[in-house]
Amino acid sequence: VSSVYWLVFSGNCAYLCDQTCRRNFSSFAAKLTTMVGWVRSVRAQKANVFLHVNDGSSLQSLQVIASSELLTFGSAVEVTGILKKSPHQKQPVELDAKQINVVGECNPVDFPFKIKERHGLEYIRQFPHLRCRTNAFSSLLRIRSEATAAIHSYFKDNGFVEINTPIITSNDCEGAGELFQVEPSGPDHADGENFFSVPAYLTVSGQLHLEVVSGAFSKAYTFGPTFRAENSQSRRHLAEFYMVEAEISFTQSLEDLTKVMEDMFRFATEHVLAHCVEDVDLFHKHVTPGHRLKEYLMSFLRITYREAIDILRRSSERFAFPTDWGCDLKTEHEKYLVKHCGNIPVFVTDYPYDLKPFYARDNQDHPERTAAAVDLLVPGVGELCGGSLREERLNLLSARLEEAGLEDVYSWYLDLRRFGSVPHGGFGLGFERYLQCILGVDNIKDVIPFPRFSHSCLL
Ligand code: 4AD
């Protein structure tokens, strides 16, 4: 055969795939077949050498029976041979090699990963350029890919339109000042010109652009990279992370938003459980033992910020940060609340108005004055989603912007309230934190292919 084929295992069946088709294994039996991949194990037994060759499409490797002992762990190979049914239950087929071409040799002495050794996530993180060659990280990347696909499916199935919001923007949506400024470089820009004529930044959130679109689309979403110049080395902060953001028009209740958040979480998690059985098993058994993904499929709880503060103040825990009305909930508070509620995801609603950005809708509930905002807190991570109803009333919004001195900067945003404004709301979910939560991964740097954080931009 002239083409290169990949082997795909599904249940007890093995399929050979080329670029365009998926055919049953039986039609390939006894024919010469070429496979490519990387050697994941080498075992000599009597006159034979048994290799496990993996091409990254799944955790499963194909057993290759060879006669040469010169093949090393980590090498890239192209093997031509005859596929035959394997006598072993676990692997439906094996490849009796007729010819092995070493495409790229791997020196096992210098290679940081050793055959038959299980390396922890912290160890493999030291090798960002090589870590996808480990089982743990390649499983993570496949799960990440499936979860991404599931989130797109969820929105598509539920009538949302995907919008590509810009990476470069002139607004600071969250108003927290954690921005990376964008400036041109190179000989053409040596005179320090202002390329965009206004200060431009990497986006911290696509929300305001989604709000523009939600003036014409009742359901819209975006899923892309966002950037925050947070000087944090914490286990849940990155300078570049992926955010899933949705905006829903004609909604007047936080319940509508929390329902979408919960449904999307459940849909994506069930999809990962159904489509990444072996990869999830690997995590459960060896990477984050004791963590069970299924546990995150129960109903979510809802409490108000007022109730959250009462729980924190009644507790005997000694918190480092204050727990008075009006104080922001810190990681220690979020983790305590989740534990107190039985280690299940918890929505906290109706935060003090002054804690939330200018766009959050005023509940007008004197004397406390809260905003129709919601955070979703989850086990192991704390805050996973932040959302709110948006202030759609022109008079209230312009008063708040004026107070903040932002009326001119956001005149276009006020226009949205002038021309066919509707009650609307939305939320953002931190995708890496979602993966941390479902897989029980302690450090956010271990769930993204190339982590960026303060003092680190490797590769
Ligand atoms: O709560 P945040 O700041 O909400 C917004 O940006 C809204 N404008 C979203 C919207 O309503 N469309 O961020 C949303 C989520 C957080 O709950 C958290 O999970 C994640 O983004 N996040 C981070 N993840 C990793 N590293 C960081 N530095 C993060 N900052 C926020």
Main features:
single chain; 459 residues; alpha+beta; OB fold (Dihydrolipoamide Acetyltransferase, E2P); BirA Bifunctional Protein, domain 2; eight-stranded mixed sheet; five-stranded mixed β-barrel; 10 helices; 26% strand; binds 4-amino-1,4-dioxobutan-2-aminium adenosine-5'-monophosphate
Secondary structure: elements and pairs:
Layout: E1 6-10, E2 13-17, E3 22-24, E4 32-45, E5 48-54, E6 62-66, E7 76-85, E8 93-104, H1 121-124, H2 135-157, E9 161-162, E10 168-169, E11 201-202, H3 207-213, E12 219-227, E13 240-249, H4 254-275, H5 277-287, E14 301-304, H6 305-314, H7 331-340, E15 346-352, E16 370-378, E17 382-389, H8 394-403, H9 411-418, E18 424-430, H10 431-439
Parallel strand pairs: 6-8, 9-12, 14-15
Antiparallel strand pairs: 1-2, 2-3, 4-5, 4-7, 5-6, 7-8, 10-11, 12-13, 13-18, 15-16, 16-17, 17-18
Helix pairs in contact: 2-4, 2-5
4-amino-1,4-dioxobutan-2-aminium adenosine-5'-monophosphate is lined by residues 173-174, 205, 207, 228, 230, 237-238, 241, 243, 245, 383-387, 426-428, 430, 432-433.
